[in-house]
Amino acid sequence: MLFLYNAGICLYTLLITLVSLKNKKAAQWLNGRKGILERIESSIDKNKRYAWFHFASLGEFEQGRSVLEKLKADYPGTSIVITFFSPSGYEIRKNYALADHVFYLPIDTRYNARKFVSLINPTIAVFTKYEYWYHYFEALHDHKTPHYIISGIFRKDQAFFKWYGSLHRKMLSWVSHVFVQNKESRELLGLIGIKQVTVSGDTRFDRVEFNAKNPIKIKAIEEFCESAPVFIGGSTWPDDEKIISNLVLMYPRWKFIIAPHEVNTARIEGIEKQFPNSVKLSSIQKQEIEIQTNETPQVLIIDSIGLLSSIYQYGHIAYIGGGFGVGIHNTLEAAAFGLPLIFGPNYSTFIEAVELIKNGSAFSVNDSKELNTQMELLSKVENRIKSGSTAREYVSSHTGATKSFLDYIYKKGFN
């Protein structure tokens, strides 16, 4: 099985190399790892030991961020190394202020893993949610580094629980403790002999609640919204924007903010065509708006990244994108601000989305007609307040995962 795993790593790297000829993200993934161990060795302080946090991508970073920041606040002298698997995490957070170093994770080979672990000499290693790498887990175990998974979520269709999953089960046996989101995950792990498990919940709830209580003010957006009710399309894709565009003419009193999942020239130009009476955030910020008529733009297009979690503070209804594709994006950021939620039909694998629908704070739509129906209902203030309050209460009632994890490692004698 290990042979197949190693072969899979080699094949994946080869495919990335081929795709990188035409794909920017693949090129970043590959180039970011060229000479990575040499760069780490030349920049790391060999007299320090580091708390190592690894994240797959930006979403996992935000998920584990509350743990990292509280740990740093409690122990300011802690040196921190962050690694990312994906360019979407590394490129955005490579200058993150609380980390001493931010790197791409070297490709998971036995040599790379053991060299990396020996270089940073970690006091602890914290992996968030889904990242499982055989050679790194083995290296941490052999190095006797306390190694934790936080916000873990397990399903019976995963390799850990299949007849061919012996290698995956071995990986989990090397983890010091697994902090999972729900009882079902703990029960599944128990079936394969993994007993070092605590149900602590999802650290995302802690992060989004903190963000909702400490939002970053964005003057340009405040001025755009003025006193109008605001519909926010967050992390949208073309299929989402198509049905949202039908609402603009129907609700002239409302302002609309579209924050697409991907920000590039082609996408922004496509959204501008979809929403003629629109303006880009960058144009407002650079004071480049030239209104050709007396009509103020009704739609604001967010053509930069990293702002969405704060933009929700200006909203009254949030539409979460991705539901007409592989699955919806982050619902909790908007729910924490007390916004009723709408999204497409592909949400069933997201526990919080299912629960938000059950408690009446979220609504799924299959087409523009159903979106129009939900908009008609939620345009009434009393309906918005009721659903939005339930959403906020849902987030507040699920916080505490960060404290649960940190209490555990502090009792173990973290220093």
Detailed description of the structure:
The chain has 415 residues and is α/β, with parallel strands linked by helices. Helices cover 47% and strands 15% of the residues. It contains 20 helices and 14 strands. The strands form 2 sheets. It has a 7-stranded parallel β-sheet with strand order 3-2-1-4-5-6-7, sandwiched between helices. The chain has a 7-stranded parallel β-sheet with strand order 10-11-9-8-12-13-14, sandwiched between helices. Helix 5 links the parallel strand 2 (79-84) and strand 3. Helix 6 packs across helix 7 and helix 12 (238-250) packs parallel to helix 13. Mean pLDDT is 94; it is low at 288-294.
Summarize the structure.
The chain has 415 residues and is of the alpha/beta class. Helices cover 47% and strands 15% of the residues.
According to DSSP, the number of beta strands is: 14
What percent strand?
Answer: 15-25%
Strand order of the largest sheet: 3-2-1-4-5-6-7
Q: Which radius of gyration do the C-alpha atoms yield?
A: 23 Å
Number of helices: 20
The oligomeric state of the chains shown is single chain
Major sheet: size, sense and barrel closure?
A: 7 strands, parallel
Separation, N- and C-terminal Cα atoms: 37 Å
Unreliable stretches (pLDDT < 50, length at least 5) are: 288-294
Mean pLDDT: 94
